[in-house]
Specification:
heterodimer, A: 564 residues, mainly alpha, MetI-like fold, 2 domains, 25 helices, globular, B: 367 residues, alpha+beta, D-Maltodextrin-Binding Protein, domain 2
């Protein structure tokens, strides 16, 4: 790329960030801190802490995030250790299946769980049939235990991300260090605590930070379980009327403040640990062969946890096929009618078309920006390129609900982004929101590609008379295509299943993407939940195909995309 | 054939811009299995029965600030209590007050009785959902014994879970004297692209054939082919013995039932926004504390002192709602509204906690 083109790319990326990252956050902060008289005030933000309702929302969000993170660690750490250390039946297959829970946004799984955890649901029916529960007093799992339900759904969805980060970190660990400790007489447990665990901390922190921030701002699951006392739902409830109301803005600011602190803390801890840790593995690690019984135990642990994480998916599938699922472990009669009806429903087809449209445009934008940013950062010496690199990763730290709220607030009549609303069509806003949220994945995979391909190839082409642009186009881009395809596939599939942007920015039924259509159907009379489940199954199939595609192209590096 | 208004509700526009097509009323949607399990052999017939302590944690409710139809149902609960108070005051022959004064006093008393009933119903609620349709969904799923719903929702749900043997676990009842009868209207938009076609459609919907589709059982001659819609036709002349033979709700006599309730706009209409707001601060935002207090009260056998604290209505009398709360809500100053909501909610939260403490201290277990 010629330096002029690089500079243009740099400028375009900066402009994109200024418009769709800095401006919405700035606008939100301004409304939260400017009083009725036009002067600065802390009143609104302080009201968030004075008001017991908001305070409780925040503490509940915190509790959910903390429990979710702990749950993810409890599930993921042992699995990661088992995977890296031992050889057991089905090791490779099970490792690749760990990602499967990610094919469904957790709130859709929650619809399936709701059908199973009801007083006349599958779990109670099973317990009654086993004689473990009285028919007279069935448990109301979700009636009083909404928070527990939210945590369970979050853990089942997020532990694979913690697992990927931890196992990657473990795999990079130099076995020589552990061997040295063993040589000096350190017993296995002590070795794990003093050597292995501290050196794995970067991965643990990275995964935990993602899980914590995700759970802290999760919107869909608490909405489905009608758990209103969390900050994200309180913000969502307030978006219908934003005029003259500074409190939702103040809530968003407080939420952003906390996530930024958490992100910064995890980054700091990460850097300290990396400085303390050793380098890369100098010798390969040999997995330890286990006895038949122990090996099967490992296999069972892996398969059991993955199976548990897929229970919500099974619930969604059964709900979509059930004629009426009530008071039995499995539905009495199965039918394909909901799929037929879903095809005829006014919401579903337009939602699928909308999602495809928004997501492919967002992915296209991501590819262009991703190549640009990665190229400028990896291949040029433009001053300030490190800032661009840091900026491209920032969307990972800022929750979707914060950006989506900012877009919504700034696209109202008379606000700076209002021109982006095409009548009442949020197309441009949703495309920008989706693209912004997934840009880190694409930048990361493009950077990895550029780093692997020697610049000498491009230089050789230029020596033979190709212009810099032509060299990039004919030599480098084809070589990084696999990386780009993988990043783009991931960006595309996660855009298809994006929850908070879709919930907040798509206000008219005609513009609903799939996720919002599923949410709306779930509370529609009669067979609404079954139709929602049918649409959920459709998106599961769809995402499985794209994830497998990304996995095939990217191989083992797939996990690397989920790291902070 | 279609009266101009019934029981205080308009049935067609005086200038004929719109006209009612089918009737709508509010009522209780219930799950027979759950009621039986809770030892309630009879389905509820009145709103007050939703406050029965046996239904604790088994009532489905929605936040009235998020659903207009649920807010309307709460308004009807309050109106019914007003009607009762007004008629008993009018019957009592008190020479000190003229009729207008007695009515005003009855409205005030009914307001408080209504809010207290809503407190009990809410204390029984599992939690508040965010849409009116989730109420019948929860009842059908067996997650709640009963809830309030517009008749179309309740009856549609009853149809939806109907078994092959003809029975249904879900039922719906419109409480006698507890609901107005209103209409779902149809209208021709100004500047419609094909007014002739639209007029023909409106005429069809209002014709005998059109009305049969709303009311007849699926498969009955002149009835719908696939699904029974179970809506009550607006035409008064439809309710003949001949038609009743094919009607899904053959026993319904809505126009007679409408005599048992007159909607008085001037009583609750001006405070409608305050009703939604107050239920939010008294019940939704403080639901955990309210539920905990209710649990303590039930355990202690409802000691009078604790119950009185639970039901205290400080700062939310009818006058205060009209003169203080409504102006704040209409002022569209959200800062003031949020502060008022916080103050009131804090007070209710404190009183629920106090009621729980009193119940735990003073009540005898099982007493």
């Amino acid at each position: 790329m010629g330096s002029a083109v690089s500079r243009v790319m740099f400028a375009v990326a900066l402009l994109f960030f200024a418009l769709f990252f800095v401006l919405p956050i700035w606008g939100t902060c301004r409304t939260a801190f400017v009083g009725a008289d036009g002067g600065w005030t802390l009143d609104y933000v302080l009201e968030v802490f004075r008001n017991e309702l908001y305070r409780e929302g925040l503490s509940n969000s915190f509790l959910i995030a903390a429990w979710t993170t702990l749950g993810c660690l409890a599930a993921a750490l042992p699995l990661a250790v088992i995977y890296v250390r031992f050889a057991y039946p089905g090791r490779t297959l099970l490792n690749s299946l760990v990602l499967t829970p990610l094919i469904l946004p957790p709130f859709v799984g929650a619809i399936g769980m709701q059908a199973m955890l009801g007083q006349a649901g599958a779990l109670n029916s099973l317990l009654m049939a086993l004689g473990l529960m009285s028919r007279q007093s069935p448990a109301d799992w979700l009636g009083q235990g909404q928070m527990f339900g939210v945590v369970v759904m979050n853990v089942l969805h997020l532990y694979p991300i913690v697992y990927l980060n931890t196992s990657a970190s473990l795999a990079n660990l130099d076995p020589a260090l552990e061997e040295a400790a063993a040589n000096l007489g350190c017993p296995p447990w002590r070795r794990f605590w003093r050597i292995t665990l501290p050196l794995t901390m970067p991965g643990i922190f990275a995964g935990s930070a993602i899980a914590f921030i995700w759970a802290f701002t999760e919107l869909g699951v608490p909405l489905i379980f009608d758990f209103n006392r969390v900050t994200s739902v309180q913000i969502f409830s307030a978006i219908k009327d934003l005029s003259n109301n500074p409190f939702p803005y103040a809530l968003v600011v407080v939420l952003l403040l906390f996530t930024t602190l958490i992100y910064a803390a995890s980054k700091l801890a990460l850097e300290r640990n990396v400085a303390a840790g050793g380098g890369r593995a100098a010798t390969g690690r040999a997995t330890i062969a286990l006895s038949r019984g122990r090996g099967l135990l490992c296999t069972t642990a892996f398969a059991g946890l993955t199976g548990l994480a897929l229970v919500p998916h099974a619930g969604v599938l059964l709900l979509s096929l059930a004629r009426d699922w009530y008071g039995t472990l499995l539905p009495d009669a199965l039918t394909l009618a909901h799929y037929r009806q879903a095809l005829g429903h006014e919401l579903t087809l337009s939602a699928i078309a909308n999602s495809l449209k928004y997501s492919s445009l967002a992915t296209l934008l991501d590819i262009v920006l991703g190549i640009g940013v990665a190229y400028v950062v990896v291949r040029t010496r433009i001053r300030g390129r490190q800032i661009l690199d840091a900026m491209a990763m920032l969307p990972l730290a800022v929750p979707g609900i914060v950006l989506a709220f900012g877009y919504l607030a700034l696209s109202r009549e008379g606000q700076p982004l209002h021109a982006l609303m095409l009548g009442d069509d949020p197309l441009l806003l949703l495309v920008a929101a989706y693209a912004m949220r997934r840009l880190p994945y694409v930048v990361r995979s493009a950077s990895a590609g550029f780093q692997q391909i020697s610049p000498t190839l491009e230089e050789a082409a230029q020596n033979l008379g190709a212009s810099p642009e032509r060299a990039l186009w004919r030599i480098t881009l084809p070589l990084v295509t696999p990386h780009l395809v993988a990043g783009a596939l991931l960006a595309f599939s996660f855009a298809m299943l994006e929850v908070s942007d879709s919930m907040i920015l798509a206000q008219q039924a005609g513009h609903f993407p799939i996720t919002k259509a599923i949410y709306t159907l779930a509370s529609a009379l009669g067979d609404g939940p079954a139709l929602a489940a049918a649409l959920g199954v459709w998106s599961m199939v769809f995402l499985t195909i794209t994830m497998v595609g990304a996995g095939v192209v990217l191989g083992k590096k797939l996990g690397a995309l989920f790291r902070v | 054939m279609i009266p101009a208004s019934v029981g205080g509700e308009p049935f067609r526009d005086p200038q004929a811009r719109w006209v009612g097509v089918v009737l709508a009323s509010f009522g209780i949607v219930y799950n027979r299995d759950v009621l039986r399990r809770l030892g309630m052999a009879q389905a509820p017939t009145q709103w007050a029965e939703l406050g029965d302590q046996r239904l604790a944690d088994q009532v489905a409710l929605s936040d009235p600030t998020k659903s207009g139809s649920v807010a309307k149902a709460f308004e009807l609960i309050i109106q019914q209590q007003m009607h009762r108070a007004v008629s008993s005051l009018k019957a009592a022959d008190d020479p000190a007050q003229n009729l207008a004064e007695r009515e005003a006093a009855g409205v005030r008393q009914g307001w408080e009785a209504g809010l207290r009933l809503i407190q009990r119903i809410s204390a029984n609620a599992r939690y508040f959902t965010d849409s009116a349709a989730k109420i019948p969904l929860e009842v059908a799923r067996g997650d709640a014994a009963a809830g309030m719903a517009i008749d179309a929702y309740g009856r549609a749900t009853e149809e939806f879970v109907r078994r092959a043997d003809g029975g249904s676990r879900v039922g719906f009842i419109a409480p006698e004297g507890g609901t107005s009868l209103s209409v779902d209207p149809i209208a021709l938009l100004r500047g419609a692209p094909d007014p002739a076609l639209a007029t023909a459609f409106i005429e069809f919907v209002l014709s005998s054939e059109g009305q049969q589709l709303w009311a007849f059982r699926a498969g009955a001659p002149g009835g719908p082919l696939d699904a029974t819609l179970r809506r009550l036709p607006v035409r008064k002349d439809f309710y003949t013995d001949l038609n009743r033979r094919y009607m899904a709700d053959a026993d319904e006599d809505p126009y007679t039932r409408a005599n048992s309730f007159t909607y008085r706009y001037e009583w609750t209409g001006p405070v409608f926004a305050a009703i939604r707001f107050l239920i939010r601060v008294m019940c939704v935002d403080t639901h955990q504390e309210q539920q905990a207090a209710w649990k303590g009260l039930r355990r202690a056998g409802f000691p009078a002192a604790a119950l009185a604290v639970f039901h205290r209505l400080g700062g939310v009398s009818y006058e205060e709602a009209r003169n203080t709360i409504v102006p704040v809500l209409q002022g569209r100053d959200k800062v003031q509204e949020v502060r008022l909501a916080r103050q009131l909610a804090d007070a209710f939260r404190r009183q629920y906690r106090q009621a729980a403490r009193l119940a735990a201290a003073g009540g005898r277990p099982g007493g």
